[in-house]
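Here is one chain, start to finish.
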Amino acid sequence: MSFCRTINLIAKEEYAVEEDNLVGYRNPGVPLPVADALTEVLRRGAGELLQQAVEVEVAAMVDHFAELRDERGRQRVVRNGYLPERTIQTGIGDVPVRVPRVRDRAGELKLNSSLLPPYLRRTRSVEELLPWLYLKGLSSSDFSGALTALLGAGAPGLSAATISRLKEVWRLEYEHWRKRNLSDKEYVYLWADGIYFGVRLEDARQCILVLIGATKDGRKELLAMTDGYRESEASWYELLLDLKERGLSADPKLAIGDGSLGFWIALPKVFGSTRMQRCWKHKTANVLNKLPKGLQVKAKTELQEIWMAESRAAAEQAYDHFLLTYAAKYPKASDCLSKDREALLTFYDFPALHWQHLRTTNPIESTFATVRLRTNKTRGCVARGGMLAMVFKLTKVAEQKWYKLKGAELLSRLIQGASFKDGILDQTHKVAA
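Its structure:
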């Protein structure tokens, strides 16, 4: 039976329709909103399609092992009835399904549906909905009402206690992740930052230290996350050394960060050849803070002319112009910019397609702007483990939507030792094959 025909039969069977308006169930006088009727039709159709998909998958599984025979010459892998019916929680309500049981007569193979593996009770979209609602700012006590509206009345396992269990799972996931082996990893770029939140931690001087890395195929990954003491040198050194001890042997080509002295002092002690790029977003804010408000719009445009210049020579010229313009009357602003001149212009020695990724710590800043939506809802003192687990989970969910670097194919040239001038590959520099 076709999907469209199924929907039509369901609609005719369940609802009374008069003059194109849905007026109620078979029981007269019971109104039913059109939206609920449509959801029910979709849910029934989804259930039938899911059952068909599982049947097809199991049939293909049996066919795949059709040549296997037992000692009596019988086909080893066969269907063996059905598992007990279960419901899958989806965005359009609970969908019942019966998964066929597959048996290996020899007992050597464990065969389960990949579409509906054992113990699956919710679709991935619903599984991600729970942490997102919490991390986006919904308090635990509000969950029952909010999820009932989204998933329907009687949806199981959606109480405040669910979130308590989820947070414990997140904590265990974080502990496993932070001890993972890195010997098979190589990162070309690093973005570093220390994140503070508007809530009281157990120690107000604590912040969360974050590293994001760009792999040799251009993907951005959360590399490290831990709590530190005010972004101190000791905290950053401990984090970087831990990465090396877990197998990260190759020095990244470039690290991008703000003016935190702790990171820049610790970096060469662990990754000696990694070059430094100061974040233009942070530097711009620091310089503007030392100028009168009436000059800040003009000064911001002049600063932008530096880091948007097409070549280092043009950037140097714009740099000198800014210092000459403001040095006499506003020496603090001028000194703030001049002291990091070399570190602010390092990106010109890397591919031009990567510049927009290298000039700021936006990969970290944009992600953690979302994290603060959750922490702003938090009241009182936050436990260290709970905060780390919550921040880790949100970041890992966000990581799935991070864009790859433009010009990812150029990363292999950097690893091989190629040099770039004003963003263009230096053809005079011979790279070993």
